[in-house]
Amino acid sequence: MKRFLFLLSVIALCDVCYAQGFMHVYYKNGTLVDIPIEEIDSLAFSDKSETEQQSVDVTLTGSWLWGSVEAGYYELLTFNPDNTYTGYDSYFSYGFDSMTYGWYANRGALLTLWSNGYGYQFRYNWYVMALTDNALSVMTKMGRFTYYRLQPEVLHLQVGQSLPCADGESIVFVDGVVVKIEDNALLGLSPGTTYILMRKSDDTILAYQVVVDA
Rounded to an integer, what distance in angstroms lies between the CA atom of residue 82 and that of residue 69? Predict the structure, then answer.
C-alpha cells in the first residue's frame, strides 16, 4: 500500500512539473538548480547518482572542449587535481578571446565553479547529467551542454595543407578561422592554435588541439 501511494505521489509530481517550464532542485546547502522540463527525458530513483555509478577510472581531471559554429565561440575547461580550473573562451566570430581562473568542487552530481578577479566574483552551479571517459554532459541555467575530453595527440598542419579523415570519421566542429572543413578533410587557413571535434568510426566524439604553421 505504501509503495502504491508513493507511486501516486511521483505521478502527481510529474504532472505538476510538466505543467511548468522548470523543475527546481533545492540542495540542503541552499543551492538551487533549475532544470528545463523540455530537457528531461525521464525520472529515476537510485541509491547512487549517475556519476557515482560510472567507473572509478573516469575523472574530471583534464581538459574538456565545447564548441558551436552557430554560437560563434568555443570553450576549453581544464580541471586540475588541486581543484583549481581554467577556462579559455575563443569568440572566433568576433576576433577575441578571454581566460577565466578559479576553483571547482564536485560532490555527487553537483559541479560548482568559482571564478574570481579584480572587481568580480562568479559562481556557477552545474548538474552533471553524464560523465564518461570522453564526454561530460552538464545542465546549466543556459541549458544542457556536452564537453568532450581533449586528447593528448596534437594535430599539426601548414597553411594550405589538408589532413583527410580516416574511413568512417568526420569533423563536427571547427572555428572556420584557423582551420576549416573541405571534402571531409581538415584544411589549414591561417597560422595559430585552435581546437576541433572529430567523430570517430564508433560514433564517439573526441576533441583535438590543432596547430597550424605558416
Answer: 32
